[in-house]
Amino acid sequence: MKCVICKTGELSPGLATVTLQRGGTTVVIKGVPADICDTCGEYYLSDEISGRVMAQAEEAVKHNVEIEIVPFAA
Questions:
Q1: CATH number of 57's domain
Q2: Is the pLDDT of residue 1 over 90?
Q3: Domain assignment of residue 66, yes or no
Q4: N or C: where does the chain have the smaller number of CB atoms within 10 Å of the terminal CB?
Q5: How far apart, in whole angstroms, are the C-alpha atoms of residue 58 and residue 74?
């Protein structure tokens, strides 16, 4: 599948680092399964993985964390 951002790269499975911000909270989640563009590095998450990433980020927001760096909860 072609990358919709750069239009030239091919997507292949890999692990991405996802950074999310809301208000004063920044969450960095490492090792997230994704399809990654071999040209520009843009990553794409499945609906299931996206939901799990958002759930992890919501926990940090609930606890008023300013910055959190965590591994992906498989």
A1: 3.10.20.860
A2: no
A3: yes
A4: C
A5: 16
* Residue carrying structure tokens 């399964």: 33
Cβ-in-10-Å burial (0-12, 13-18, 19+) of 42 comes to middle
Q: What residues make up the domain containing 43? A: 11-71
Assess if residue 3 is contained within a domain: no
Which residue carries 């909270």 as its tokens? 25
Identify residue 69 by its one-letter amino acid code.
I
Q: 53: part of which helix (H) or strand (E)?
A: helix 47-62
Tokens 């919501």, residue located: 58
pLDDT of 27-44, one tens digit each? 999 999 999 999 999 999
Residue 22 lies in a domain: yes
Give the residue among 54, 48, 42 at the shortest CA–CA distance from 16: 42
- Model pLDDT, residue 29: 97
Amino acid at 38: D
Residue type, 16: A
